[in-house]
Amino acid sequence: MLLELIELSKSFKSSAEQVRAVDGISLTVDAGEFLAIKGPSGCGKSTLLLMVGGLLSPDSGRVLIEGTNPYELSNDERARFRSTHIGFVFQQFHLVPYFNVLDNVLTPALATRFPQAKEHATELISHFGLEHRLHHTPAELSTGEKQRVALARALFHQPKVLLADEPTGNLDSENSEIVLDALSQFAKNGGCVLMVTHDDQAVKSAQKVLGIKEGRLTPSEEAETLMTS
Ligand SMILES: Nc1ncnc2c1ncn2[C@@H]1O[C@H](COP(=O)(O)OP(=O)(O)OP(=O)(O)O)[C@@H](O)[C@H]1O
Asked: DSSP per residue over 16-56, as a string?
């Protein structure tokens, strides 16, 4: 089991009320699986993914990534664990604006000693067809190119777990297809992908689709209804 979530919950307190953003979610994703969770805005998708990625501590429940609970590690260990075991792809790319493409893809190497990091990063960049953009900054790239840089960075440490939050949200259909193909290929190569989205097209690439509503998973029949509503 590459990824296991057990009764994960998180609430936020605003001045007026307490919002239960994620409410007791349990699921597993195995090697070779691409799972999509689909739901409307505000239903808890990003909160869930941040907790899975070791970036937001849950109020209760457990996250196990290859058997390790990142929240049982020290801050430094958790940062290193995230960098080496989990790849992230976000809607907004989160590239470092003043780094060029090569240096952006190399950022995961900052926390670790990776032999021949530059050669490895260059290979990944070429894999995504961006060898002619090595020394460009993000501002000089198209949105599709930015997401391909983010993918290359996510794959730098050859993680087994790839987390994607609305990865096609800013992309046209051609670039969406490139990104979704890369996620599918990652699962085919033995990794696991957990993607959250509200995009009907994007979920078609996944092997399994669940719904999420008010912080709770809904069974797949309901997910079908959610998708067409
Ligand atoms: N830091 C926070 N402080 C207070 N409330 C928050 C915080 N983060 C999320 N929430 C609330 O938790 C709920 C779930 O938010 P979340 O961002 O996880 O939803 P989402 O499904 O990812 O939405 P979207 O698709 O619009 O990004 C929402 O009601 C949101 O307002």
From this structure: S-EEEEEEEEEEEE-TT-EEEEE--TTSSHHHHHHHHTTSS
Q: What pLDDT score does 222 carry? A: 44
The ipTM value here is 0.95
pLDDT interval class at 221 (50, 70, 90): very low
Domain boundaries, the chain: 3-11+20-228
16 compared with 129, residue with greater pLDDT: 129
Closest approach atom of ligand 1 to CA 39: 21
Residue owning tokens 């994620």:
22
Pocket flag, ligand 1, residue 18 (CB < 6 Å)? no
- Integer Rg of the chain from CA: 17
Nearest to 52 by CA among 3, 91, 10, 13: 3
d(CA 224, CA 215): 18
* 10, 58 contact by CB (below 8 A): yes
Among 13, 58, 19, smallest CA distance to 214 is for 19
- Ligand 1 centre to CA of 45 (Å) is 8
Fold of domain 3-11+20-228 = Rossmann fold (3.40.50)
pTM for this predicted structure: 0.92
71: tokens are 């929240």
